[in-house]
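Shipment paperwork, digital attachment
Item: protein structure file
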Amino acid sequence: MDVLTLARARVLASLFDSASVVILGDVMVDQFVVGHVDRISPEAPVPVVLFDHEEYRAGGAANVARNVRALGGQVRLLGVVGSDDSGERLKRELTASGIGTSDLVEDPARPTTRKLRVVTDRNQQVARVDYENDAEVAGDVERVLAGRLASLAETARVIVVSDYLKGVVTKRLVQLAIDAARKRAIPVLVDPKIPHIDYYAGATLITPNHHEAEIATHVRVRTDDEAATSARIFQERTSCDRVLITRGERGMCLVDGTTTLHLPAIGREVSDVTGAGDTVIGTLALALAAGATTAEAAELANHAASVVVARFGPATLSTEELLKTFQEDDRR
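Attachment content:
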C-alpha cells in the first residue's frame, strides 16, 4: 500500500462534490453548558460551575453527516427524532449545515437523544446527563426507515452505519443496507458498538477503536503487531472485508485481506476527542465514494482526525484544511 501523496489527495478532494453518501444511524444533540470553576460546593465535594454560555451541536450520526457535507460531499441522513424541542433544534442545526432533514423519522414515543455536558472554560468535563430511550426501533418506525433506506441505496455510492446503541441500528436495517449495497457493488462502512457485533456480518469496512477491538477479540492492543492481530481476529469474527482500528495517539491500523497498513498519528495538540470517530468514518466514506482506495481513504481520514481533535466538541473541517495537513506533514 503506497502512501498518499499531496497531488493524489488534491485529485480525490476535487471529486468530493460529486460523491454521495447515505448515513443510517443514531442522531443526537450535543449540548454544552460552559462555565468557570473557582470553588468546591459546601454541600458536596463537587465543583461549582458559574454559567457563562451554552452551545448546541448536531452529534452522533448527524455529526458524520456534517463532516461529509463540510468536505463538500452530498449526504442523506436516516435517523429518528422525537416530537420535542431537541428534535427541532437538531433539524435547525442540520439545515444550517446544508443537510436535509426529510429522512429523519419522527417517533413521538421516544425523546430525541441529547447529551448535556457541563464543561469548564478550559474544556474540562465536569458531568454529563443523557436524555434517551435506547430501545431498538420496531414496528412502523423500523418499516419506514427500511423503505427509505432501500430507496436511497439505489443512488448512493457508499452507505454508512453509525451505531451509538441508541436504538436506530437494528439487525434488520443493517442487513438491508448490506444486501442493497452488495447488489450495487458499493461499500458499507460501520462505526460499531460491540453489543451489536453480530449485526455487521458482510460489511465492507468496520472501524472499531482500540478499546472496542480489545473487547471483541480478547487481544491487548498496545503495539503495531498486537493491533494487526486484533484487526485480523475482528475481521474473521464479523465476516467483514476490512478493519480499521483507530488507536488515538498511536494512529491507525488497517487490515485489508492479507495486507496491513500502520498509519502513525499526525502530531497535533489534542483539545477534545469528542466526535473524532465521526470525522474518521465520514472522511473514509466520502473518499471511497470519490474513488479512493481503502488505503488512500484511511490516510485522508487520519489527517482529518488530526484537525478535529484540536477543536472543542463534535467538529468538522474543510477540504482546504484537510489538504493543508499534507503540506504540513514532514513525512511528505
